[in-house]
Amino acid sequence: MTYELYYWDGIQGRGEFVRLALEDADTDYIDVTREPGRGTGEMLKLMESTSEAHVPFAPPFLQDGGQIISHVANILFYLGPRLKLLPKDETLRWFANGLQLTITDFIAEVHDTHHPIATSKYYEEQKEEAKARAFEFVTNRVPKFLGYFERVLTHNPEGSGHSVGNATTYVDLSLFQVIEGLRYAFPRAMRHYEPRYLELLKLHASVKARPNIAAYLASPRRLAFNENGIFRRYPELDIGP
């Protein structure tokens, strides 16, 4: 059965972490809100249902037959074995899940650089607070998170250039997206930081060169970054470390 992915139309956002896994595995899926005749209304109807037993709070969520799975890390943990993007070893699977949850934390902090007060307010209503939050993020949090993932790659006992085990996992795909997003949102800061994280850069390059990922990135299915998503380019927030 074809997977059905529900996420906001027009932005990569958190849904992109799931798309990358589905695309890398060359798996049939439907991006529901981009489908003619279905769209965002269908997603909202499901979220607001008073009759469904398992209603997701927010997108992204994945429907696989009668099963609905919400939250990026949870979706990827579900898909990982099915798409062959997780090691068979259970210990490594739980470690991969922990890494993905750490990426979830990182992405939440990216979001808060442009919405530090409330998601219900426009960026223009919290620009001064956003500038202060972005300064903290760029100077302290970016090197903390990237430094951690660099250590994970460096000390992988498999010595394989992957974050977990000796083959590509959804964590590797997600780290690729993190680097892509940071380069878009904080190009000045990333030019400063990237020379420190050579293993992450190698991983990014290897994921980008994977045939199915390369085809996806060149296709119209890959939405462009924009100022409605999580990674937003506001020059005044790209503060040099």
Structural description of this entry:
This protein is α+β, with helices and mostly antiparallel strands and 241 residues long. The protein has two domains: 3-82, Glutaredoxin; 90-237, Glutathione S-transferase Yfyf (Class Pi), Chain A, domain 2, CATH 1.20.1050.10. 51% of the residues lie in helices and 6% in strands. The chain has nine helices and four strands; from the N terminus they run E-H-E-H-E-E-H-H-H-H-H-H-H. The protein has helices at 15-24, 39-47, 72-82, 90-114, 127-154, 170-185, 187-193, 198-208, 211-217; strands at residues 3-6, 29-31, 61-64, 67-70. Strands 2-1-3-4 form a four-stranded mixed beta sheet, covered by helices on one side. Strand 1, helix 1 (15-24) and strand 2 form a beta-alpha-beta unit. Helix 1 packs across helix 6 (170-185) and helix 3 (72-82) packs antiparallel against helix 4.
**What is the molecular shape?**
globular
* Class computed from helices, strands and strand pairing: alpha+beta
CA-atom Rg in angstroms: 18 Å
Q: Could you tell me the mean pLDDT?
A: 95
The CATH level-2 architecture of the largest domain is identified as: Up-down Bundle
Protein traits:
9 helices; single chain; 241 residues; Glutathione S-transferase Yfyf (Class Pi), Chain A, domain 2; 2 domains; four-stranded mixed sheet; alpha+beta; 4 strands; Glutaredoxin
